Amino acid sequence: MIEMKNITKSFGTNVVLKNVSIAVRGGEICALIGENGAGKSTLMNILGGVHQMDSGAIFIDGQRVRFDTPAQSLRAGIAFIHQELNLINDLPIFENMFIGRELKDRWGRLDLKGMYKATEEIFARMNIQIDPGTMVRDLDASYKQIVEICRAIMMDASMIIMDEPTTSLTEPEIRRVFEMMRTLKEQGVGIIFISHKLGEVMEICQRYFVLRDGELVAEGEVADVTTDDLARFMVGHELKIDRLSRTKKLGQEVLRLENFTHARDFRNINLSVREGEILGVTGLLGDGRSALFQTVFGADRSVSGRMIFRGREVKTASTEQALQLGIGYVPRNRKENGIIKDMNALENASIVTWPLFSKRGVVDMERHREIFRRQQKELDITLQSFSDAINTLSGGNQQKVVLAKWLAADPKLLILDNPTQGVDVGAKEEIYSTILKLAEQGMAIVVLSSEAQEIIRICDRALVMYHGEIQGEVSGSAMTEHEIMRLATGGVLDAV
Q1: Which helix (DSSP H) or strand (DSSP E) does residue 348 occupy?
Q2: Residues 24-56: pLDDT tens digits?
Q3: What CATH fold (topology level) applies to the domain 253-488?
Q4: CATH 3.40.50.300 for domain 2-90+135-235
Q5: pTM tops 0.70, yes or no
């Protein structure tokens, strides 16, 4: 049993946690949820020894403890598996399992056989069928998560904190990680599951804790609530889940693709999108949609077919050329592809337009400040100062900065690849509102998303891809989760 009682924490004048109390037992999976900036990570970083609380107490099986370093927390049996996995791609699994505590033989050399055997034993115990000698770079995302979990078990962790473990996983990979979590639960290990995916919370967790603005606002048994209840606890009010409406006025065609084909990723793509239209493109992960629109954006030139942009045929030979044409692209996986962690908020929001607003090669930062000041207000970006490090902002605010970066270039076509990945339900609604507003202003928008509900809520119509081809189009009453999934798995629409 781990108890955190009356935990309070401030950073300067910013009070992040206010008298938060939670308790988690071994052998149960508890959800810790809340909007970005609610205090979840800070609370877990205190339990993990990364931060120290200002007041409050931590108890393990009734004994009061304090963790001043992550090593102290780990020695007490608490392992923290962060969203950014701490694995080295160029080492085999068994060496990754022992980083920082390598086994040595009597001559002081690495005991590779011993580390391999110990890894093999832990995999057998957890019923994992992987060769410990496999290079980490050859693993898919779910097996990397599993290696992190096994490393925690090898270090005798009896409580594991999992921070957004499924954000970048496909559906089969999520199933694999959930199987692993259930095995751990049966073996008496406790898990604290941090996630924005409320459907997963309902599936895998027994109890929940909800933080809002640094306070614990709800807790209880998952069986007693619905996803709507949890969403309401997180944001403090009811969330609408029906299709969003707007004033729709379609203009001229902005993009048309004819028989657009890539030897590996997609084939015979024919589509069109007009001014003021929100076109959804969905399917299952690996369907080719990201590769298709990265090619439209100039990231890959090995393509045949025709691309007509604003009435004339073009070939985007580079992303710079695509930007000059008036195409913007908000990539998926914000942390890897959307932000530059060593830059501040203003620099991240302006980097795309540095070449556009420069005088004799000198960046006009005053103009960028003026643009970002306007975007901060329009997108409701919460930050203390333009010089705030981008990684100190919540996920939702980071995503808004990424959006601001592309809006500064005033694109005619904006491609959004999983625009709400890793953001909370409140920030999602704000981003949806921005997308609708941009469409009303005449921008052509393409939304790529694996979430059928997202496509249904904000798109005028949707193309569903299957194995690199467009399997069908849905709109109006046919745009349902059932029909989208039918097409995404290779089926056809019901005959009318």
Answers
A1: helix 345-350
A2: 999 999 999 987 678 888 999 999 998 999 999
A3: Rossmann fold (3.40.50)
A4: yes
A5: no
